[in-house]
Each structure stands twice: as C-alpha cells, then as structure tokens.
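Usage

Read records sequentially. Each one opens with the input sequence:
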Amino acid sequence: MLPPIYQFNLTKPPFDNLKIRQALAMAIDREALRYGNPAFGLVPPSIHGTQLNFRTEMSDKMYFHEDVAAAKQLLKEGMREAGLTKFPSFTIIVNEYINHDVIASKVIKDWQKNLGIEASVEVQSFEELLDNRIHQNYAIARAGWSADFNDPASMLELFSSQNVSNDTGWSNAGYDRYMQQARQAANPGTRMQIYATAEKLLMDQMAVIPLFYSVTDYLSHPNIKNVYVDYDGAIAFTRGSWR
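and closes with the structure output:
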C-alpha cells in the first residue's frame, strides 16, 4: 500500500514554489503522528527490490529529513520568491475514514508551531475528494493507493506525466525518462537503481509529502502455517493451514 501522502496542487500558488513545498515537508514531526513508521519516500517496505525489499535496499534517508531550522529558512526564501509577505491560509482535504482528520490536525499544528502557517482540515466523502482532486479543486489533498503488483513501478508510475491518476499538476520530463528506462531495463539491479533515482527526483521536487508507512497488526499462532501479510498490506489466507 502506498504510504499516506499529502499531495500539492502545483497549479495553485504558492504551492508551485519548490522551497515552500520543501519547508512544509520538513517541518512535520512524523514520529509524533504515532501512526505507522515515518516515511521519507514513496515506495513502502512491503514492495520487493532485487533480493530484499526495496526500502531496505534503497533507504529513504537519502532523500530528505526533518529539519525545522532549514524549513524556516526555506519558507522565508520561498515566500520572497513568491512575493508574499504573509502566508495565505489554506485547507487540507481528506476523506471520511478513521483518524484522517486527526492526522491532518497534528500536521497542521506542526506547521503552525514551526512555521507560523495557518491551515484547516475539511473532511469529505471519498467520491467528493476524488472529484476535487481530478478537477484540481484543492490546495493540499490526502492520497493513497494499494499496489496492483509487487514492484516499485506500481507506486512510481502514478506520477508519470501521462498517468491518469496523476492529479498533482506535476510533470517532469526527466522522471518520465527514468520510468521508460526502468521498463526497458533487463537487469533487476539496474531497474531498482533507476527507480531509486526516480523516487529521489520526486522527493527533491516534493510534489507530494510522505507521512508514514502503514503497518499491519495481527495475532499469530504456531500451528497456523503459510498465512502472511502480502505486499499490499492484506493478510493472505489462501495457502494457510493448521498443523
């Protein structure tokens, strides 16, 4: 499952400014959200890499990190570039589901405390949220997907310029080239390195803010065999047995 993210509407100022997007991403205390494991990339740990999972082979620690002091400086520079003397208030839209509004409220408190930015959260039905994202009628919106197959492409292809699910307004020719190169790469190790390079570009451009990698809680019994958590976060029972 794609980690819960907040995606920017890059067609809407001031979120078309890279430094402002970076400041917002770096000013969040992910550990304090108390959900899952802090995420600094897009591909979750459940997705395979070459020998191990992709996240173990390609650490997201090389992408960006939380840094309030740096975030304040980036915001100052970004506002100057955008011609702003005061940051405009905005709304995060989230869908109706357990704790989405709670998580958004915690993120907003971090922005207010660390950057002096005011924001609010609006809870919408899932259908309304999708419609607003498709028509780019939002400033920042919650997003998340389940993987269709166990490969980084299942997540990273979503942000290709021509992908119908890419409703961020972000388009990058270099990223598109990486996706094409990965599709054509015969060597698995080469493919994974290309995906890591593409993921780093996505994080460098901060088209989305990763929040945390979801985890699955379950109880086990020593007599139950071949029941496991699949790559999409679901518990697979199809090959299970009692011994």
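Summary fields computed downstream for this record:
- The mean pLDDT is 92.
- The longest helix spans residues 188-205.
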